[in-house]
Amino acid sequence: MQFYTRKRRNLFVNVVSLIDILAILLIFFIVTTTFRKKQPQVQINLPESKEAESAPAPSTEPVVLRVKNGDQISLDDKPVALDQLAAAIQASREAHPQRGIALQADREAPFGVVVKVLDALKQAGIQDVPAFTQPEPGKP
């Protein structure tokens, strides 16, 4: 007696469609990921300005001079004493001549300290310093 035996089909998983789905998910996560810059160590409340203009993005990121309070001054997130600020700015310019310097002063920073910081910038030979502000609420 002969029994009919079915041929077994080779089972396989179609991997091509899974690779397509994986590639689409990978592209989705890469596009939707926010790339965060290094945040400053000190939270700064920037002053608001009606007349501030957005400057074009520079080709290199500037060295940021932050003034939080009279005793919290930092140059590229490195704390600097006010009396040593001009020398630190000059050393930073020599180390990175292609990078500019931008001022980011807190709105609660004493005006006298900001003036002393501007004097230190002038001593270091820097004439034009852009300052960070934030737009007023309701203005794009």
Write a compact overview of the structure shown.
The chain has a domain at 48-135: Nucleotidyltransferase, domain 5, CATH 3.30.420.270. 30% of the residues lie in helices and 16% in strands.
Distance between the termini: 88 Å
Backbone CA Rg = 28 Å
CATH architecture of the domain at 48-135: 2-Layer Sandwich
Q: Which strand-content bin applies to the residues?
A: 15-25%
- Would you tell me the structural class of the helices and strands? alpha/beta
Chain-averaged pLDDT? 77
Strand order of the largest sheet: 4-3-2-5
Number of helices: 3
Low-confidence regions: none
Explain how this protein is built:
- The chain is an alpha/beta fold and 140 residues long.
- It has a domain of 88 residues: Nucleotidyltransferase, domain 5 (2-Layer Sandwich).
- The protein has three helices and six strands; from the N terminus they run αββββαβαβ.
- The strands form two sheets. Strands 4-3-2-5 form a four-stranded mixed sheet, with helices on one face. A two-stranded parallel ribbon has the order 1-6.
- The longest helix is centred in the N-terminal third of the chain and has 18 residues.
- It is elongated, with a radius of gyration of 28 Å.
Name a few traits of the molecule.
140 residues; alpha/beta; 4-stranded mixed β-sheet; 3 helices; 30% helix
Fold blueprint:
Blueprint: H1 15-32, E1 48-49, E2 63-69, E3 72-75, E4 78-79, H2 85-95, E5 101-105, H3 111-123, E6 134-135
Parallel strand pairs: 1-6, 2-5
Antiparallel strand pairs: 2-3, 3-4
Helix pairs in contact: 2-3
